[in-house]
Fold:
Amino acid sequence: MKRADVDAYRAKLDKAVEEAQGKLAGAYAQMNGWPTDQKRDALGDVFAELCRQYGDAVGVTASDFYALIRSQSSETSTYKPVLAPNVPAEQVRAAYSYSAKQLYTKQPDKILKSLNGRLRRYVEYTARETVHVNASRDRARTFWARVPSGSITCAWCLMLASRGWVYATEQTAGGVGNEFHNDDRCMIIPSFDDSPELEGYDPDAMYEKYNQARDEVLSDGLEPTDKNIAGRLRDMFPDELKDGSEVPSILGDAAQGWPEGIQPVKPRIWRHVLTRHLPPDGKAASHFHTDSKYEISKIIRETLSNPDLVLDKSDWVGVRNYHKMIDGNEYIVGIIEKNGVSSVTTAFPPSPMNRRIDV
Structure:
C-alpha cells in the first residue's frame, strides 16, 4: 500500500468536507436578520441536505479508494464495491436540534463551529462505512484499520487506532460510526496483505502507550474503562496528543487519589513548577529527578497524600510545607490556606542551600 494513495484519499475527503462547510456558512449568512425560529428550521434543512449530498459524494470516493487498494494487491478475484448508507436522517436531525440551542443564546454565531464538527463527522461516516462494509463483504482476505490523520492525534483516536489491523468478517461488520467524534479525521483503511503495513501508522507504538496508561489506571485502583484510559493518556503524553492535559487530571481528581480538601492545581502553578524545576532547563537551582511531567505530577500527589512531615511556615500565615522522601529523593509541596481554601503554591526538590522554601 502506498502512503501517497492514502494521503490523496485524505485530501479528497477534506476537500468535500470543507466545501460542505463553506456552503453551510454561506447559507447561514443569507439568513442574517431572520426570526430565530425560522432560521433554526431553515438551517436544519440545509445541514441535513449537506450531510446527505456530501455523504453520497465521499461514499463514491471511498468506493473508488477501496477498489484502488484492492487492485494494487495480489488478490485476483473480482469484486465490485458497494456504497454504504449515509448516517441515519433521524440521527442528523437529533444532533442538529442539540446544536440549534446555540441560536437562542447571546452568541448565536457559535452554532457554525458546532455544526462544522458534526458535518465532518456525518459526511465522513459514509466514507468510513463504505470501506468497512466492503472489507467485511469481500471474500478476499481483508483487513481494516483506523488510521489517524496528521502528525498527532487525540487520546480517544490513539486508543482506538492502537488496535491495529483487524481481520474483516461479517461478525465485525457491525458498524464503526459511533467510535468517531466531531471533527474526527481518522480514516478506515483496507489492506489485502497478510502482514499489513502503512508508512506513518505504527499501531504497536500506540498500543504500548495504551498499555502504559491502562497500567497506571489499574495501579490507582480504578476500572480500566475507555474513559479512564483516555484521560490517563492525556496526562501521560500531553505534548504528543492534540488534547493533552494542560494540568494532569490526577492533580485535582479525588477519584484518582488527589487528597480531599485541597483545590486542583491551577495551570499557572503547574507552569511555575515546570518552568523552575523541570530538567534540564529549569530556572531554579534544584530540578526534579525526572524529566517526565507525568511522574512529577505523581510526586506532587504522593507528597500531599502521604507526607512524611508537614511543617507550618512561621513567617507566612497559612503556609504549610509537605515533605516526602520518594526513591531516596526529598520533595516539598507548598500549600497556602485562605478563607478556608487550601491551594498548592509550589512543588520542588529542595536545594542544598535551602531545604524548606522554593528559592
